[in-house]
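Supplementary Note 3. Input sequence used for the single-chain structure prediction.
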Amino acid sequence: MREKRPVRENEITLIHALLKSLDLNPDNYPVDDLVDEYEGGKMGSISLGGNPDAYAGDLIRVEYIDSDQTPVVITLTQDDQGRLLDLDFWKVDFSKLLDYPTPDQIIFGI
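The predicted structure, written as discrete structure tokens, is reproduced below.
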């Protein structure tokens, strides 16, 4: 098991913005105080504390263009109990995420 770290404010801000874009109340989707980084934080993906064996689908998928002009697909997932599971980042060239997105930089409708 990897070592957990405190969730960052910019991660919470992004998660809340994604939930609000779906007309979901962020209060109904609590984020654990500690998260687990995937790939050592290279792309920004984190586990949010749901049951990883109970993936129940994507809540939303959006895009972001990193500062090197490389597209990044961001997906917020849930488990079968309706808890947040992952905030997943996939930079299409598999390189390191250079700048963490703010909600105003997100492209909806992909």
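The helical segments are 9-21. The longest helix spans residues 9-21.
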